[in-house]
Write a structure and sequence with these properties.
elongated, eight-stranded mixed beta sheet, 16 strands, single chain, 16 helices, alpha+beta, five-stranded mixed beta sheet
Length: 429
């Protein structure tokens, strides 16, 4: 007997009862970004592997262990994108839209892929919304990205459940000086480091700061601090960012161990974290990457951006019960028609109502059925009201109007007055 087909581990179906909340979240973000003047860009989910090796860094966990890489029929090494920034930089370079200092404020949405151990809030196919801004080098645009996310948390009702952590990694030169000091310190405590940190010490020592191992964390207490190695430019940039966040009233915590997991970051890095999701506490993160475009073959171009995990933020909305009532209701009005003549009239009536109320969620019964069975389907749909068309209603050119949730008696509404009546009662309902 053949094995039953199922989804790949860590790659999940998003079922019809889940998609309304996803659409609500995505729509809220898209509307906010429109209001701030950001434009959407869409990139392929597959890129040449070299793109990620050059941008993310060959000695990062993502490139070493987590990428889905394969050889296509032409013998090219291709990779399912593990993150969006590199692909976005490739796109703007390929199409020349940042040339001549053109400012670009872009956003994208879609699936990313990493071969990680699946757990709640961490999957092998996961979805992100990302922003990238090019050719603005001041702390004002860094602040705007953070202010936008702060506003988003407020609109979603989760502001009290997230905390902003900030750090500055400085320029590549100052980071290099810090790296030398950190390696010297950690090498002197090599035997106290966990195995993974010992490996990172040789390949990507700044990632040791991000360890979750308690023994290594104890060693890091007296380790050199990045802030002591910042150049004057980076320090002034960071102070400018903090001043703007203070002016708007956004609280933050300075985290000197915040380094992010990608090689291309410089100066500002930040994370929005929560204690509501267990171990997977980061819901949005990003920072500045002023050297990445040049590293990938372009001219020196300042860049800054972030990405937020849709799965984790949807899970937060569910955990905190911040789901608008209309999200759980898929239908406003359900039309029941009995007999072929009523069915034909019902279809025409429904289309006239949709012409007048394009945002009304009106479902017409399909598959005929008895009075009892149609009302059972109307109730199961979650509709606020049922419309009834039978022989009596057809004779009088009215439609029965019956509330399905709460109080109210059934009444008859003339066909030409139905849209106006629905506009009033559905909004009030």
């Amino acid at each position: 007997m053949s094995k039953s087909l199922q989804a790949i581990r860590g790659m999940n179906d998003i079922l019809p009862e889940q998609t309304p909340l996803w659409r609500y979240f995505e729509g809220t973000v898209a509307r906010l970004l429109d209001n701030y003047g950001y434009k959407q860009i869409r990139m392929p989910i597959v890129e040449f592997t070299e793109l990620f090796k050059r941008s993310i860094g060959e000695v990062t966990d993502i490139v070493e262990k987590e990428m889905y890489t394969f050889e296509d029929r032409n013998g090219d090494s291709l990779t399912l994108r593990p993150e969006g920034t590199a692909a976005c930089v490739r796109a703007v370079l390929e199409h020349g839209i940042t040339g001549g200092g053109q400012v670009q404020k872009l956003w994208y949405i879609g699936p990313m892929f990493r071969h990680e151990r699946p757990q709640k809030g961490r999957y092998r196919q996961f979805h992100q919304i990302g922003l990238e801004v090019f050719n603005l080098d001041g702390p004002d645009i860094d602040a705007e990205l953070i202010i936008m996310t702060w506003r988003l948390w407020g609109e979603l009702g989760i502001r009290d459940a997230v905390k902003l952590e900030l750090n500055s990694l400085g320029t590549s030169e100052s980071r290099g000086r810090y790296r030398e000091a950190l390696v010297e310190y950690l090498s002197a405590h090599h035997d106290k480091l966990d195995e993974d940190s010992q490996r990172r010490l040789k390949t990507n020592p700044l990632r040791v700061l991000d360890t979750k191992n308690a023994d290594t964390q104890a060693v890091l207490v007296d380790a050199p601090k990045m802030a002591d190695y910042l150049d004057d430019e980076s320090r002034a940039h960071f102070e400018g960012l903090k001043a703007r966040l203070d002016a708007v009233g956004i609280p933050y915590v300075l985290n000197p161990k915040l380094v992010r997991g990608l090689d291309y970051y410089s100066k500002t890095v930040f994370e929005w974290v929560t204690h509501k999701l267990g171990a997977q506490g980061t819901v949005c993160a990003g920072g500045r990457y002023d050297g990445l475009v040049e590293q990938m073959g372009g001219k020196p171009t300042p860049g800054v951006g972030f990405a937020m995990g849709i799965e984790r933020l949807v899970l937060m909305l569910e955990t905190l019960e911040q789901i608008p009532e209309e999200i759980s209701r898929q239908v406003d009005v359900y039309l029941c028609a009995f007999g072929e003549e009523a069915e034909l009239a019902g279809l025409a009536l429904a289309e006239r109502v949709r012409d007048q109320l394009p945002n009304l969620r009106l479902q017409v019964n399909a598959g005929a059925g008895s009075f009892k069975s149609q009302f059972k389907k109307a109730d199961k749909s979650g509709a606020l009201y049922a419309l009834i068309l039978g022989d009596d209603e057809m004779a009088q050119q009215v439609v029965g109007f019956k509330p399905l949730r709460g109080q109210g008696e059934q009444q008859s509404i003339a066909w030409d007055a139905l849209a106006a009546h629905l506009a009033t009662c559905v909004v009030q309902g």
